[in-house]
Amino acid sequence: MNFYFRISLNAGLGHLFRCINIAKELKKNNINSTFILEKNSLKLNQFIKKNIKSVYFINKNLKLKDELNKLEEIFKLSKKRIFLLIDGYNFNYNYQKKIKSKVYKLIVISDIPNTRYCCDILIN
């Protein structure tokens, strides 16, 4: 199993810390995690690299098509089933619908009520 996290850092670091804690629990069960984040400040990138072994940085504000292409490149490196957890406010229904077809299971963390989701598992 390959477990990926796609996290938005636009709203703060809470999404990142929550997912780091989930990744630590997965590691206890011998499940490795890969983080996919936007490029950010140098200090934050250094913190991330220090605390997360496997991380890909992508450009901020990519168009949906460009981000999907980048994610597909990353996923092609995997030979196992891909579980993707997305956590952030900018991953709307359209994003979820397009990415869901690229992964085995899509997990969404969201606290926004009365919102439409396209995922296998919703953590609300």
Instruction: Give the count of helical stretches.
Output: 4
Helical amount among residues, as a percent range? Answer: 25-40%
Q: Tell me what portion of residues adopts beta-strand conformation.
A: 15-25%
Please identify the oligomeric state.
Answer: single chain
Number of strands: 6
Shape: globular
Major sheet, described briefly? 6 strands, parallel
Explain what this protein looks like in three dimensions.
The chain starts with a strand and ends with a strand. The mean pLDDT is 86. Strand 2, helix 2 and strand 3 (55-58) form a beta-alpha-beta unit. The protein has four helices and six strands; from the N terminus they run βαβαβαβαββ. With 124 residues, the protein is α/β, with parallel strands linked by helices. The longest helix is centred in the N-terminal third of the chain and has 15 residues, at 14-28.
In short:
With 124 residues, this protein is α/β, with parallel strands linked by helices. Helix content is 37%, strand content 24%.
Could you give the topology of this structure?
Elements: E1 2-7, H1 14-28, E2 33-38, H2 42-51, E3 55-58, H3 64-76, E4 82-87, H4 93-100, E5 105-109, E6 121-123
Parallel strand pairs: 1-2, 1-4, 2-3, 4-5, 5-6
